[in-house]
Amino acid sequence: MYYELTPKEFETLTLVGQGKSNKEIAEIQVVSIRTIESHVSSILRETGCVSRNKLIILFLNSKDKFIPRAYKRTSTIEKQITQLFIERSGILPSSTAVAITGASRGYASNIIQKLRRIKNSQVLCK
């Protein structure tokens, strides 16, 4: 299972994992504390964690399971292709994605190209 987070949630989680408080994170990201609280609540909801401490433990033990979401709304096909892409370490021909997900070739190719750009820019955590 992978946890998709917005880029800001991903950044927030990284700082939470470093033991930073909401106030410290808000100062670093130059946003309100309420915004950080909202990000943390969203991350807790996405992961199913019931506390900040459990979230930190999950993050530190499974960093490779957290991925930044490239889109605000991700379709089921995009999620499937993203998981296949990660499971195969970025080696995913569009024909395979089409065969497994039923996406159109163009749609699958666009998603894979975006994922490769993200991977090449070192956004995916290792």
TrEMBL record:
Biological process terms in GO annotation: regulation of DNA-templated transcription
Keyword Transferase: no
Keywords: DNA-binding, Transcription, Transcription regulation
Gene3D superfamilies noted in UniProt: Winged helix-like DNA-binding domain superfamily/Winged helix DNA-binding domain (1.10.10.10)
The HTH luxR-type domain, residue ranges: 1-63
Molecular function via GO: DNA binding
Highest taxon of source: Bacteria
Stored PROSITE patterns: HTH_LUXR_2
Protein's UniProt name: Helix-turn-helix transcriptional regulator
Taxonomic source organism: Hassallia byssoidea VB512170
